[in-house]
């Protein structure tokens, strides 16, 4: 008990400046095992500490109290409160422990995800404060929780930050996969397609299941978004992926092929045939959306061939049952901004128009400005990468410049230069 | 401070004169104070008045033409000044005058120039001495001190007027306003001096860069001046500075004259051109980015490629 008292006083005393914190950190590390054993006193200790000031000590004690298989009920609540008000600077010193704690919290809260979304979001933001463009292990967990809770917007706010540095490939795969699913939930199919593309073309030594699932969704999202399907993977996918991913996706390939032919009835037959497979993969909803998008794709193709068309003709060409349905579809597409057309209800004619965007409004100026700023930022990142690569010893050794420098490097290796005589 | 001239003459000054005076001054100053300041026993040329380099005064004559009420000063030449008698060498002046008359038949001696910060007493003597050539000569004074905060040219033109001081009519110097007038050749040379343009025209890239730099500095200056005005007006509004109605009237008239064309067609065209330029810079940025990316990828492949490049899988990828 005396050790506990001493520990409490040291936590309370040393939570001030950075030097003190390092000393405290060392002490806590030594005291970890003893903390784990004394599970009864842990909660009572926690009452004496303030999470926002004594974050480091609080973190250690919380982690020790949750390391066992059985938790106290209050622990979950305490963790949520702790995450919300802890001090990011102190957490930085023990970030792995923080990550472990949050993962345990997530597992515990998984059945009731809404409770955990807020704390997980703030946890990610606090970790992100350290290095804003780095992917942490918490990002995919937070996204998974948001998916479970169907809080797509909350998850989307994490996705909007650009990630430049990645530590663990698995984290990256999971992040992109869950991110893609969140975007599908929000119907942002373009961003979903990009994220899933990242997973499919990520460098990997062995095929993992994340890539499989991502590839299936990627095919479907591409169909919905741009109506394109190709039998082969993108060129920059790793060779491992290129060999193996196709084997298990035959139902999806069938869907893609029939989509390309453009006949709705055959596509629906294929969907029904493979529906059990789609159910197993939880992709049935996505497949149905893909079928619905085929109508849109066909109508889009009509705009390129005809200037005006009657609603019955549209219904016939797109294999819709009647003109009313055609009108609904066209109206929906006009509202979404996918086509530009005028429907004349008196004689049932649709006139397809050109894109009226003249690019001469002041709103367009704002759009262009923001886009240019983003490109400038991207260019700066690339130049920084270029510079760091130029200083990389691997590069210098192999490049022409490096080889020339070696030629004039007399001091080291006489064996390589037999002509050199002292 | 000399009061303003009331003769009603309009003075037009050509930049050539300013360049000549400054060139004269710089030359003499460098000769007197050479960069290798080892020797102190140099022959001091006779046209310098005082020994210390900052007080060096140079003298010369300005020539030009007078048409009606407009006096246009085109050119200038140097004169020899005798420090002992504090006067200009007359014979030299007349010789030079004859030579210049042959080359520029329409030009007459209009006055003289000197350098310094303000007019001094014995300037009046020189002025009077020149009165027999031109009954009302002008005195052009260049202030060679470099003052970075000063925005105007450090050139003042003085005329002489008879004022009654202490009961005796005396000639004193009075300030005359002037404008700068340029001929095409002068504009090119002034540009050359001001912007140090490459003499062979340079490549297109350097020309574009020089042009854009010029525009950029002009816009920056405009921006800072507007900012000063704005802060002044805000301070007047808050009450920190007493209201100056004439200044506010001037600012109001400036603002009212600003949108030169206010029609919708103008707005349309303006926005369209603006968007076009933005699209062009966007395209340029993307191209720039793509070339950067290309370099990064090349460097990456060189650094990390495996040595066995003849694998069966085409092996264009650095991993596996």
From TrEMBL, chain A:
Keywords: Cytoplasm, Nucleus, Signalosome
SMART domains per the UniProt record, alphabetical: PINT (SM00088)
Chief place of localization: cytoplasm
Organism listed in the record: Eruca vesicaria subsp. sativa
Entries under InterPro entries matching the protein: COP9_N, CSN3, PCI_dom, WH_DNA-bd_sf
Record protein name field: COP9 signalosome complex subunit 3
GTP-binding listed as a keyword: no
Subcellular location(s) per record: Cytoplasm; Nucleus
Domain of life: Eukaryota
Matches recorded under Pfam families: COP9_hel_rpt (PF22788), PCI (PF01399)
Any one Gene Ontology cellular component term annotated for this protein: COP9 signalosome
Domain PCI: 188-357
Family as reported in the entry's similarity comment: Belongs to the CSN3 family.
Keyword rRNA-binding: no
From TrEMBL, chain B:
Keywords for this protein: Cytoplasm, Nucleus, Phytochrome signaling pathway, Signalosome
InterPro entries per the UniProt record, alphabetical: EIF3F/CSN6-like_C, JAMM/MPN+_dom, MPN, MPN_CSN6
Cellular-component GO terms for this entry: COP9 signalosome; cytoplasm
CDD domains: MPN_CSN6
UniProt entry tagged with the keyword Cytoplasm: yes
Subcellular location(s) per record: Cytoplasm; Nucleus
Domain MPN: 30-164
Domain of life: Eukaryota
Tagged with keyword Nucleus: yes
Biological-process GO terms, alphabetical: COP9 signalosome assembly; red, far-red light phototransduction
Record-linked Pfam families: JAB, MitMem_reg
Family assignment from sequence similarity: Belongs to the peptidase M67A family. CSN6 subfamily.
The protein's role, per its UniProt record: Component of the COP9 signalosome complex (CSN), a complex involved in various cellular and developmental processes such as photomorphogenesis and auxin and jasmonate responses. The CSN complex is an essential regulator of the ubiquitin (Ubl) conjugation pathway by mediating the deneddylation of the cullin subunits of SCF-type E3 ligase complexes, leading to decrease the Ubl ligase activity of SCF. It is involved in repression of photomorphogenesis in darkness by regulating the activity of COP1-containing Ubl ligase complexes.
Protein name (record): COP9 signalosome complex subunit 6
Natural source organism: Eruca vesicaria subsp. sativa (Garden rocket)
């Amino acid at each position: 008990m005396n050790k506990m008292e001493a520990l409490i006083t040291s936590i309370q005393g040393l939570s001030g400046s950075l030097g003190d914190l390092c000393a405290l950190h060392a002490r806590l590390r030594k005291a970890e095992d003893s903390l784990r054993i004394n599970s009864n006193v842990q909660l009572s200790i926690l009452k004496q500490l303030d999470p926002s000031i004594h974050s480091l000590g609080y973190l250690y004690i919380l982690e020790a109290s949750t390391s066992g298989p059985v938790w106290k009920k209050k622990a979950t609540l305490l963790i949520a409160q702790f995450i919300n008000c802890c001090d990011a600077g102190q957490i930085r010193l023990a970030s792995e422990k923080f990550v472990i704690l949050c993962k345990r919290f997530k597992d515990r809260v998984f059945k009731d995800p809404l409770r955990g979304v807020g704390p997980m979001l703030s946890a990610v933001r606090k970790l992100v404060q350290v290095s804003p463009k780095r992917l942490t292990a918490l990002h995919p967990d937070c996204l998974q929780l948001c998916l479970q809770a169907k809080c797509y917007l909350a998850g989307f706010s994490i996705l909007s930050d650009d990630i430049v540095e990645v530590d663990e490939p698995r984290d990256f795969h999971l992040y992109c996969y869950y991110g893609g699913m969140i975007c599908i939930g929000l119907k942002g199919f373009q961003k979903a397609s990009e994220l899933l593309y990242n997973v499919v073309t990520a460098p990997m030594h062995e095929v993992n299941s994340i890539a499989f699932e991502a590839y299936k969704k990627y095919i479907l999202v591409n169909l919905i978004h741009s109506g394109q399907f190709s039998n082969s993977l993108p060129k920059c996918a790793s060779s491992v992926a290129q060999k193996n991913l196709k084997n298990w996706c035959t139902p999806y390939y069938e869907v893609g092929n029939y989509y390309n032919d453009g006949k709705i009835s055959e596509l629906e037959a294929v969907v029904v045939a493979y529906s059990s497979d789609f159910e197993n993969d939880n992709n049935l909803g996505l497949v149905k959306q893909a079928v619905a998008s085929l109508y849109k794709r066909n109508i889009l193709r009509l705009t390129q061939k005809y200037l005006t068309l009657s609603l019955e003709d549209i219904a016939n060409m797109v294999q819709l049952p009647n003109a009313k349905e055609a009108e609904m579809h066209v109206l929906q597409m006009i509202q979404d901004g996918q086509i530009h057309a005028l429907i004349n209800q008196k004689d049932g004619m649709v006139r397809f128009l050109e894109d009226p965007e003249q690019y001469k409004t002041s709103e367009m100026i704002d759009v262009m400005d923001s886009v240019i700023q983003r490109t400038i930022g991207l260019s700066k990142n690339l130049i920084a990468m270029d510079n760091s690569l130029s200083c990389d010893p691997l590069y210098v050794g192999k490049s022409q410049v490096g080889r020339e420098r070696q030629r004039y490097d007399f001091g080291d290796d006489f064996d390589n230069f037999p002509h050199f005589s002292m | 401070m000399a009061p303003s001239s009331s003769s009603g003459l309009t003075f037009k000054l050509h930049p050539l004169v300013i360049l000549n005076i400054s060139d004269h001054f710089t030359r003499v100053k460098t000769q007197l104070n050479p960069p290798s300041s080892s020797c102190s026993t140099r022959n001091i040329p006779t046209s310098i008045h005082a020994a210390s380099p900052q007080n060096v005064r140079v003298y010369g004559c300005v020539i030009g033409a007078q048409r009606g009420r407009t006096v246009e000063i085109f050119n200038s030449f140097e004169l020899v000044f005798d420090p002992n008698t504090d006067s200009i060498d007359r014979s030299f002046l007349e010789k030079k005058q004859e030579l210049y008359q042959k080359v520029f038949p329409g030009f007459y001696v209009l006055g003289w120039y000197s350098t310094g910060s303000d007019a001094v007493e014995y300037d009046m003597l020189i002025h009077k001495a020149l009165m027999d050539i031109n009954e009302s000569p002008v005195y052009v004074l260049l202030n060679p001190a470099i003052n970075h905060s000063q925005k105007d040219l450090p050139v003042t033109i003085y005329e002489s007027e008879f004022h009654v001081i202490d009961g005796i009519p005396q000639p004193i110097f009075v300030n005359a306003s002037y404008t700068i007038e340029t001929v095409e050749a002068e504009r090119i040379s002034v540009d050359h001096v001001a912007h140090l343009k490459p003499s062979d025209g340079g490549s297109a890239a350097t020309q574009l860069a020089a042009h854009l730099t010029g525009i950029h500095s002009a816009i920056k200056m405009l921006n800072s001046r507007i900012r000063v005005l704005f802060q002044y007006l805000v301070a007047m509004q808050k009450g920190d500075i007493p209201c100056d109605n004439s200044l506010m009237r001037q600012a109001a008239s400036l603002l009212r004259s600003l949108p030169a064309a206010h029609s919708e067609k103008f707005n349309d065209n303006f926005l369209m051109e603006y968007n076009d330029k933005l699209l062009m810079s966007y395209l340029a940025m993307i191209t720039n980015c793509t070339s950067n990316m290309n370099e990064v990828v090349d460097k990456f492949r060189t650094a990390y490629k495996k040595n066995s490049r003849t694998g069966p899988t085409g092996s264009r990828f650095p991993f596996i």
